[in-house]
Amino acid sequence: MGVVSLMIPHRVSSPDELVDKTSAVESCDLERGYALLMEQPARAQALAQDVERRGRSQGDLAVVGRALALESRVAMRCGKLEAALEALVESESLLARSATPELAAEVAVASTRLTFYSGGYREALERIQEAVAIADEHSLDRIRLDARFHLSLILGSLQLPECLEVARETVVLAQTLGCPYEEAMGRNDVAYTLFTRGDLEQAAAEIEPAITIAAALRDDGRHVLAYALATRADIRLAAGAALDALADADEVLRLIETGGDPDPYLTGFSYGVRMRCLSALGRTPDAVEAGHRGLAVTGEAVPFVRGMLLRDLATALRCSGCVDEAYDALVEGFHLERAVLEQQATRQLAIQRASLETTAARREAVAVSAQNTELHATKAELERRVKQVERLRDRFREQSEQDWLTGLRNRRWLAHALPPMLSDAQRKSFPVSFVTVDIDHFKTVNDRFGHDAGDRVLQAFAGALVTAVSRTDIVVRLGGEEFAIVMPATPKAGAIICCERIHALLREQVWPVRDPNVKLTVSAGIASSDEHGGARELAALADERLYTAKTTGRNRTAA
Q1: Residue 73 or 95, more confident
Q2: Whole-prediction pTM value?
Q3: How is 277-293 classified by DSSP, letter by letter?
């Protein structure tokens, strides 16, 4: 991005002219700050703060507002959204008192980006269209480019067909203005839009010039090069070239880690891409490690990116067989997502309120009913999204308490459900029987017929147990060939009758293996809440009696 060069004539100025001349110098410094925004945000922040200080000392409200808008953009670049909101609200208030075209356009772009991060895509679209109109009318070239990048981003997020046209228009404008950095960014947007539409071949062709241009900028283009490589990684992964995609993801992370001032959004998304590449290559442990690394590096700076990483990590953990850890990652992700939704709604309301207050001061009228409608609509949308998250959470909790092979309840469900069931039974003075069932010599099935056949036998056995018990009984798979039956309001005598029914049913059962003559028997141990009221003690007593049944000949019930 080029730096604006201003030629200031050497002559004595009047006091009134001095204010205009100083503002021009401040404008030049602000343009330098925007040029440094993506690659060197710390320097951009220092410039913006210095311009703000000078503007306040000179009483130049437009300069102060523009400096605050840049500070808001820097804070967003670094993932500090609350600091961005604070600076933006103050710049909006100054806009009402000093509406220069540069201030109005820069505040509109900053408001657009923060509104976008807060989930208000439609509101963001309205603001960015305002910024584009102002920048075009007043020939503010840098803002014309900046506004179109944001317009392309929002159109893409809304999946509107104009997105590709705007991205290509931005590339042409960057070429016309001689801005290679912006050209690389625009080409990246074109490629990513094509990728989201499933046109992988064209997307792959479009991303290569972006990478070439960004690489030629060397240290001045590290950030845009990292974005372009991340886009190529997504394209390659979708095309089945997971190894090449992994190389791109690793290069992105190297650029981030060696360049200083890492972008938390890009960092988080890059670790997500790396996880998906490793999973596609069958390197699940490495994918899990990458997920943990991504969470450690991004920290708490960008909650919605952390939530995305947690969901990807849960998938990797589940593939590696760590079901409990996967569930914990999902729960943390849903809690984060709910917190992010609440923060987004609060932030979006603050942005809308600041914008409405500015409009009121400039037009001397406030559409109070319209504001209330927007606030209520935002609240309703928040409630809808929170309920959606809660439904997803409940669905994943149900899945985590279900055995993956048989569809029965599992040990996690038993640990949660049995203690309150026993407490309720004690209060109402009715018994609960607990039966532990184990298939005798099940290892011989796996040895003779293979583990796939063993899994089919376990599924058939689970079905037989469900058939044998009453409608109110719950069958649980504890693990392997060991099952449990929880029998509410059933005394020990009733549990014994049920076990005899199971023995009789198994004598007639035909199992899904090559030898139709295979017969399976079970050993069972029964305990009743009349003997022990605690869940642990009840299960332990049933296990002890199961052991007795095993050691006294199997194919029997010990009560």
Answers
A1: 73
A2: 0.59
A3: HHHHTT-HHHHHHHHHH
